[in-house]
Amino acid sequence: MQYRRLGTTDLQVSRLCFGCWQLSPAWWGDVPVGPWADAVKAALDLGVNFIDTADAYGDGLAETELGKLFQREGCRDKFVVATKFFWNFSSGPARFPDTTRDYILRACEASLRRLQTDHIDLYQIHAWDPITRPDEVGAAFAQLKREGKVRWFGVSNLNPEQMDLYRAHFEVSSLQPPYSLLARDIEARELPYCLRHNLGVLNYSSLHRGLLGGRYTADTKFDDHRAKAPLFSGAGFKIILAALDEARGIAAGFGLTMPQLAVRWVLTNPAITSAIVGVKKPEHITGIVKAAEARLPQDTWHHVATLFKNAQTAALAARD
Ligand SMILES: NC(=O)c1ccc[n+]([C@@H]2O[C@H](COP(=O)([O-])OP(=O)(O)OC[C@H]3O[C@@H](n4cnc5c(N)ncnc54)[C@H](OP(=O)(O)O)[C@@H]3O)[C@@H](O)[C@H]2O)c1
Q1: Is the distance from the beta carbon of residue 224 to the nearest atom of ligand 1 less than 6 Å?
Q2: 209 ligand 1 Cβ < 6 A
Q3: I need a labelling partner for 133 at 20 to 30 A (CA). Which of 33, 71, 82, 264 fits?
Q4: Closest residue (by CA) to atom 34 of ligand 1?
Q5: Which comes out higher in pLDDT, residue 229 or 249?
Q6: Catalytic site includes residue 57
Q7: What SS3 state is found at 125?
Q8: Which residue has the CA at smallest separation from atom 16 of ligand 1?
Q9: pLDDT of 229-239, one tens digit each?
Q10: Is residue 278 classed as helix, strand or coil in its secondary structure?
Q11: Domains of the chain
């Protein structure tokens, strides 16, 4: 496993990060916890020391299961633990964005309790809250840092202007944006911003929610949140499957599988510190680790990028 320093923090993180969103029944259905916990242990054995979760994943379920596993295995300190807050789900089913000072302090206490730990290594704001002043967020963060409950702070799904607003009030160490062969918007502004200001980047949906894993066929039907997602059905889906067939051949030329090529493609970008992969079972993590070590030549990176860019354009145009 290879490791990188996350921005200007003192955190050395593996280039692969274990994503815990899969323990969200409302999005992914009932993912069995046993194989998931085995996958966390397998990740550790393979040198993956970075784990990403959020309080909102399964309304506390992902943090709770992680906390139990940390206790059982005594492995809390072997991980750099990143979690998030933003969605206030404490007052019923209608969750809403909340980055007020009082809520942040309460949300952090709740995450610490669920994770059964005394500190969070990276505490991230899940998204942009347009109605709370950045200085109020900064005041809460200063308190959490003073009390030793959080080591570093990060943001997710923000643009450069929003990051500027927060950076005037507290140290932002990282950005968590979506990035994959099928989601490249952040190459224009967010990634150059992170390079210029030395922010670490842990990108999510490296496999585009599994589509770039290369395991689906024309007969695959999705019974989770992806059933209604663009590119996961109809004529567009078939166009992406054809691109995957071609890419699989390219991957094989480098001794890689399709998901390894997709993750290696992301990691080749110098702005990316660590690629998060969403995991349900041990094979997901054991099947991907090779991506952290492989090399992709410049021409191949661009070749694969163009292949999927063209396929995506055609797939979106073909949507019924
Ligand atoms: N900050 C945010 O707003 C945000 C948003 C989304 C995600 N995230 C974070 O990023 C993580 C990853 O993102 P993601 O879940 O959207 O997508 P992802 O990593 O692109 O896709 C995950 C899915 O890919 C499939 N998969 C995993 N490993 C595989 C392998 N080795 N080979 C083939 N297929 C594989 C699995 O789906 P199947 O088993 O169904 O094939 C899995 O559920 C999340 O767990 C979460 O921690 C953050």
Answers
A1: no
A2: yes
A3: 82
A4: 213
A5: 249
A6: yes
A7: strand
A8: 205
A9: 889 989 999 99
A10: strand
A11: 3-213+260-294 (3.20.20.100)
